[in-house]
Fold Delta(3)-Delta(2)-enoyl-CoA isomerase.
Amino acid sequence: MCSLEKRGNVWVLTLAGDDPQHRLNPTLIDSLASALSRLASHATPGSVLLTTAQGKFFSNGFDLAWARAASSPSAAFGRLQSLVESFRPIVAALISLPMPTIAAVNGHASAAGFMLAFSHDYVLMRGDRGVLYMPEVDLGLPLPDYFTAVMRSKMKSGAVLRDLLLGGAKMTGAEAVKMGIVDSAHDSEESTVEAAIRLGEQLAGRKWVGEVYAEIRKSLYPVACNALGLTQKAIVSKI
């Protein structure tokens, strides 16, 4: 599950619930979809989204234990595919959300959890604990097409992509800053969230029109938008 609260113009979306690893299962994905839909409908000039989580995990990716609990290997594969496809609209919603978005990565973010964080405009990470990790090559799992499209759109270094996706590299906050994957690393969970709140307040102060912001964002990532089924919308100029 996740919670959504408003602090001034900054909406704080927090992954919570009984699973300390915040693995993406149908329940959590549905909760994220509901929260993002609410945000899209309540956006006003100056709105900002900040996403974080409780505990030492941001998200450990898809709930593979839930998938493997199916009655047969084919049913387990079907469950995994359903997670992949139901998460696609979450990434699409973040890429098209009419407001700036910030991820405050409080701990480990792996696989789809990494993708959840990386789908935000800004990524701040704690430096004292936690890694970013794409373990699909180690798990023997194919990478969803939209994962690749988003990462190729946002990461310009082929060497970084190789190390993450083909090498299964685990990157700390400091390493991720050096590689240009995250914007900053901080000393603790609290300082990470505090820095994200400060950034959110700065962005909120610009009072940008969300619809325009979203269309400019989409124009930056045409390959990712194509994989996500997002199209550009014409906006009438108010000059």
Summary: The mean pLDDT is 95. Strands lie at 2-7, 10-15, 48-53, 57-59, 101-105, 108-110, 122-126, 132-133, 170-171, 184-186. The domain at 2-228 is CATH 3.90.226.10 (2-enoyl-CoA Hydratase; Chain A, domain 1).
